[in-house]
Amino acid sequence: MAEETQAQEEIESTQTTETTTQAPTTYTQAQLDSEADKRAAKALETAKAKWQAEQAKALEDAKSEGARLAKMTEDEKTKELEKQRQAELDKREAELNRRELSTSTKSLLVDKGLPTDFAGSLVALGDAGKIKTAVENIQKTIQETVNKQVEAKLQTDSPKNGASALDGADDPFKKIMAQYKKK
C-alpha cells in the first residue's frame, strides 16, 4: 500500500515538473500591439472617469455655493466674499513666507558649509530664530565629530619591537656612510 502511494506521488511530481517546464509562450508583434492598445485604452478610460468625477464634484460644489449665496442678503454676500478673499490672501501669504523661509534656510546652510538637504526639515520648525539655532547646533556637532575622527586617524602607536630605531649598530645608513668615509 505504501509503495502504491509512493509510486503515485512520483507520477504526480513528474507531471507537475513537466507542466512547469513548458516552453515560454511567444507572441507576434500584432498581439503585443493589441495588448498595449488595450492597456492604454483602459488607462485612458480610468483617467477620464476620474476627471469626470472631479469635474462633477467641482460643479456640484459651485452649485451649492451659488445656492447658499443666493439665499443670503447683500450684506451677508459681501461679508462672505470678503472672508473668502481674506482666506485666499492668507493662504498666499503663508506660501510666500514658507518659500522665503526655505530660501533663507538654504542660504544659511550654504554659508555654514552644510548640505542643503537639511532645508526641508528645518523649514518645518517655522521660525527663523529656531532654524538659525538648529543650524548652528548642527554645524557645531558635525565639526566636533569630524575633529574627533581626524584626531583618531592621526594618532599612531609607537613601534612595539623597536624596528624603527635607526641608531643601532645594524643601521644600514651608517654602514653605507662608513663605506664612503673610508674612500
From TrEMBL:
Q: Where is this region: Disordered?
A: 1-102
Where in the sequence does UniProt note compositional bias of the Acidic residues kind? 1-12
InterPro entries xrefs: Gp46 (IPR025580)
- Extent of Basic and acidic residues compositional bias: 35-48, 57-101
Bias type Low complexity, positions: 13-31
One Pfam family assigned to this protein is DUF4355
Under which name does UniProt file this protein? Answer: DUF4355 domain-containing protein
Origin organism is Lacticaseibacillus mingshuiensis
